Automatic annotation (TrEMBL), chain B:
Protein name: histidine kinase
InterPro entries for the chain: HATPase_C_sf (IPR036890), HATPase_dom (IPR003594), His_kinase_dom (IPR005467), PAS (IPR000014), PAS-assoc_C (IPR000700), PAS-like_dom_sf (IPR035965), PAS_4 (IPR013656), Sensor_kinase/Photoreceptor (IPR052162)
Keyword Transferase in record: yes
PROSITE patterns named among the record's database cross-references: HIS_KIN, PAC, PAS
Reactions catalysed: ATP + protein L-histidine = ADP + protein N-phospho-L-histidine
Hydrolase recorded as keyword: no
Domain PAS: 252-306
UniProt keyword terms in alphabetical order: Kinase, Phosphoprotein, Transferase
Enzyme category, top tier: transferase
Enzyme Commission number, as recorded: 2.7.13.3
Superkingdom classification of source: Bacteria
Domain Histidine kinase: residue ranges: 395-608
Residue ranges of domain PAC in the record: 200-251, 312-377
Length: 141, 608
């Protein structure tokens, strides 16, 4: 099976854990062709960047890797604020968490229904970035 | 003239003190004493008008024959004069002349009216007595010492259930009494009546002729004649039914009293004015008073006005509407002690079915209440601890999971990585992950210690000294940040606290205040302490960044929650001291305003 390198214009990684960030970046190398990967330590930073991009007319990230537990503004709060922005572009958001709290899963299910974007739920550890995570429909089969 | 002569002749007769008359053989009145004429209401003797004795004694039919027999005899007769009937008794004797010839009759008359009346009265009294005896079922008896004769009246015989013809002896009479106490008592009393002239009146038991045992009341009274007892008179009355009824009433009373006294309740009965008319032991011991001190008292005499008023209103409600109050929870205060009661009040009816008061019952549920409260507290504590455990378990699982996930991921990379430089980087990351895990484990251990080491004993610590000590250790850090500390804590303020916890609490709150200072102004930290009923309140305020509590309020004391973008913010300090404070029974709250400052309030529990 061959996975094609997907071309992605912009990717946001929002996580306060440097090791996770390192891992995601490393895994992306082999599956995505992206020149613009932005790292944010919390939701607030990422949100501010989103607004800036919107204002400057820069491209909105196609893919966001979003941690849930973060200081200042956590993943859920970020999602809430982002939905308010009414971004019309196609965005894939991957919620990444080490939490196995069923409450988090339920919250994700609730958000999935009202979120206009693709919302994935990924439990750590992550070993591979699936094409799905980048918004691809598998070419094979 | 002749009449004058006659007056002379019979002058003697006329003057006789005893009413006397002379009759001729034919029964005509020849002459009479004045007193005789007065008895019969006759005028002085008039020769021309003949008065016959028969007309004076019309009821005596055979008087003519009797007079002719020339023998003396007695007669009782009556005469009605002026609507008054007099009883008379006349003695008739033949009148002889010098030659012993009967020439007439001498009549002597006595007025016996008063005797007859007395006799009648006596009969009447006898009658009354007999009726009385009969109605009251009281019999009498009489014993004559000389003749040793014992007489029982009819009723006495009836009481003994012997036939009317029965004539008892003293020994037999005494043997009717139940052997043992009754017989001994009667023998003794009877003996004393004779020897010591003592009357008696007592209740004893007889065994009747038919073998029935019955209670009787007997009396005896000696009659003394010439210095010694001539006879003894007494009565006997069958009081069996009364005694039995009395016994029954007494038994019922005893049962009721025992019941009411032994109930584990405070029982009282009040009249229409809410005056106590009955109290049981429980009520007495609750009020620390004797029954006689409580009877007649109202609640206003015993309790505070307010409580008494409530009680009185309840009483009125029960008596007015006749609806009982059942199992109402009430609070009573007596001498500053509060008691919880489960109170019931029911209307009390008299024999005619009219309400005449209330019956009250109070069950002391103070200890139950206390236990219930303790139980509630315990449940609260338990559920809180349970909540804490769950959240701790989540923290543990989440934090450990995140590290182990990193390990897995990095090891996966290492496995497939060929590039030496990249492998070195991955190994460096792994080391970092390991350090992080160790730190997390260390933190978790600290929290565990707080929550498990109950043995950490509280000591009375001088708050100001403790604060000064911590500030001294932080002096370099505080100086570097240009910090101004305003310590308003009184020199003698003390708190009960685990020493290391107190240092940790002060250290974390003060260093947080500096860490999250506003970039635009040097930090000012104000420390205050107030002593109240609940304990000591320590508050540490700053003029720093502040926080949006609407947003983070529920998370601020959570583990690994940070709200500011600072390198050294680990989100552990507040979680740790919250655990320490709560382990000591205290609490911590926060007030904050963005860009104004934050105040943390720590409440210390004074209990050991």
């Amino acid at each position: 099976m061959c996975i094609l390198m997907k071309k992605v214009s912009c990717i946001f990684i929002v996580d306060d854990d440097p090791i996770t960030v390192f891992g995601i970046k490393k895994m992306l190398k082999s599956v995505a062709d992206c020149k613009d990967i932005q790292i944010f330590q919390n939701g607030k930073e990422a949100y501010d960047a989103l607004i800036e991009r919107q204002n400057l007319g820069k491209p909105i990230p196609e893919v966001i890797f979003l941690d849930i537990n973060m200081p200042i503004m956590d993943g859920w709060d970020f999602l809430d604020e982002m939905i308010e922005l009414n971004i019309t572009e196609h965005v894939v958001i991957n919620m990444i968490t080490s939490s196995i709290d069923p409450l988090d899963y339920k919250k994700w299910a609730d958000f999935k229904d009202r979120c206009p974007y693709i919302l994935n739920f990924k439990n750590k550890p992550i070993f591979k970035i699936e094409p799905n995570d980048l918004g691809c429909i598998t070419a094979a089969s | 003239m002749k009449a004058v002569e006659r007056v002379d002749q019979f002058y003697l007769l006329k003057q006789l003190p005893k009413a006397t008359a002379l009759l001729c053989k034919e029964g005509n009145l020849l002459d009479a004493s004045c007193s005789w004429l007065e008895i019969f209401g006759l005028p002085p003797i008039n020769k021309k008008q003949k008065t016959q004795i028969f007309s004076l004694l019309p009821e005596v039919e055979d008087l003519i024959e009797k007079l002719q027999e020339a023998k003396s005899f007695n007669l009782r007769h009556e005469i009605s004069l002026n609507n008054e009937t007099r009883h008379l008794k006349s003695y008739f004797a033949p009148w002889f002349d010098e030659k012993e010839n009967v020439i007439g009759t001498i009549v002597q008359t006595d007025d016996i009216t008063s005797e007859v009346e007395k006799e009648e009265e006596l009969n009447w009294l006898k009658n009354i007595m007999e009726t009385k005896m009969e109605v009251s079922k009281t019999g009498w008896w009489e014993y004559e010492i000389d003749t040793e004769k014992l007489t029982w009246c009819k009723e006495t015989k009836r009481i003994h259930q012997v036939p009317d013809c029965y004539e008892p002896t003293v020994i037999e009479a005494i043997e009717f009494y139940k052997s043992g106490y009754s017989q001994n008592k009667v023998s003794m009393l009877f003996h004393k009546a004779i020897t010591d002239y003592q009357s008696y009146d007592t209740k004893v038991m007889i065994v009747t002729f038919n073998g029935e045992e019955r209670w009787v009341r007997i009396t005896g009274k000696p009659f003394i004649k010439e210095g010694k007892v001539a006879k003894i008179f007494g009565t006997i009355k069958d009081i069996h039914n009364q005694v039995i009824a009395e016994h029954r009433v007494k038994e019922h009373q005893q049962l009721l009293t025992t019941l009411v006294d032994s109930l584990p309740l405070n029982v009282y009965v009040k009249d229409l004015e809410s005056r106590k008319v009955l109290v049981n032991k429980g009520e007495c011991s609750y009020l620390h008073k004797k029954p006689e001190e409580l009877i007649g008292k109202t609640d206003f005499d015993l309790y505070d006005r307010e409580i008494a008023q409530i009680s009185r209103e309840e009483d009125i409600q029960v008596m007015k509407h006749l609806t009982p109050i059942i199992g109402k929870e009430t609070v009573s205060c007596l001498n500053g002690k509060t008691t919880h009661f489960l109170t019931s009040k029911i209307p009390y009816f008299d024999l005619e079915g009219k309400v005449c008061g209330v019956i009250g019952m109070g069950l002391d549920i103070t200890s139950m209440k206390k236990k219930q409260e303790e139980l509630c507290d315990l449940i609260k504590i338990t559920s809180m601890q349970n909540q804490k455990l769950i959240s701790f378990a989540h923290i543990v699982s989440h934090n450990l999971r995140s590290h182990s996930a990193n390990f897995s991921m990095l090891l996966g990379f290492l496995n497939s990585e060929k590039d030496q430089e990249e492998r070195k980087r991955i190994i460096k990351m792994l080391t970092q992950a390991s350090d992080n895990l160790l730190e997390t484990l260390g933190n978790l251990n600290q929290v565990l210690d707080i929550n498990t080491q109950e043995s950490e004993t509280k000591k009375t610590l001088n708050l100001k000294k403790s604060i000064t000590g911590v500030l001294h250790n932080l002096s370099a850090f505080l100086e570097n940040n240009d910090t101004q500390i305003i310590n308003n804590v009184a020199d003698d303020m003390v708190v009960k606290c685990v020493p290391t916890y107190l240092d940790s609490i002060i250290l974390n709150l003060v260093s947080n205040a500096v860490k999250y200072k506003s970039p635009g102004r040097p930090p000012i930290i104000t420390i205050n302490a107030i002593k109240s009923d609940k304990g000591v309140l320590l508050s540490i305020s700053d003029n720093g960044l502040g926080m949006d509590l609407d947003r983070y309020g529920d998370k601020i004391f959570g583990m690994y929650k940070t709200f500011h973008n600072r390198e050294d913010a680990k989100g552990f300090g507040l979680y740790l001291i919250k655990n320490q404070i709560e382990a000591m029974g205290g609490s911590i709250t926060v007030q904050s305003e963005v860009d104004k400052g934050t105040t943390f309030n720590v409440y210390f529990n004074e209990e050991s």
